Structures are given as structure tokens and as C-alpha cells.
Amino acid sequence: MENSINQLIEKYFNGETSLTEETSLKKYFNSGAVAEDLKQYEPLFQYFEEEKERVLTDDFDQKLFEKIGGAGKVIQMRSTRMVYLRVAAAVVFLIASFFLFQNIDGTIAEPEPIVWEQYEPETTEEAYEETKKALRLLAMTLNKGTKKAANEVSKMEKINPYSN
Prior knowledge:
Blueprint: H1 2-13, H2 19-30, H3 42-53, H4 60-68, H5 80-102, H6 124-159
């Protein structure tokens, strides 16, 4: 008997018992003749039996509302998100209308052409110096990339030293 109760308890806590098995467990633990090694489960099943007998009184709702404090005020909450969306929509509308009505006469302003001659070097020495500056800038940028790649590789080697 005790072995079958132990198996039923195991099934009960795994959620695998049927209603008849649970009823037999409740009867066993409420009988008063519980084995010593199962005494720890007795209060649990006694609690279930006691709570099953409890019922709500007819004036339960009234007592609950009295404790809560009666009917409260209904306050309509305004979402701040909606206020922000309305303001943003108004700003977008104003900006769009400004740009739309700025050129209302229909003329499109032509951009000024770029005069590239002002940027060209006048002597070959100037051209050489500008080329050296450009190549130095390119080399510095490439070196930064190389240093960054070397740092990342060293980090990976620290993480996995056996990858070589």
C-alpha cells in the first residue's frame, strides 16, 4: 500500500494522475493513518479539503466594495504620444508648405556651375605636392585599417590560441 502511495505521489507531482487516483490520495492523507515518511504531504491534502468547504457569503461583494472605498472617479487619460504625433505632423506640414510655396511662380533656379579651373595647380611642383598630400592621406587611412585588423586578429588569438 505504502509503495503504491509513493508511486501515486510521484505521479501527482508530475501532473500525471487521474481524478480517481487523486481522490484515493486525498482519502489516504485525510484518514489520519499516514506513514511516517509521508507525513510531510499530509498538511497539503488537509488544506485542500478545508478550502473545498469554504464558500463565499451573500454579502461578499458589498464587503469588498466597502473595503475598496466605493466607486471611484473615472479619469480619462490622454496619451502623450498622440500629442507628440500631432505636433510632429503639424511641423512637417508647415515645412512642406514652406518649400512648396517658396517657388510658387514655377521657375526652377539653376545651380551655378562649378569652376574647376580654380582648383587646378598652376605649376608642376604644386601638382606634385598636392599628389604627395593625397597619397599620404591614403596611406594613413590604409594604415589605420591595417592596425585595426591586426588588433582584431590578436583578440581572436587570445580567445582561441589553438587556431594556428
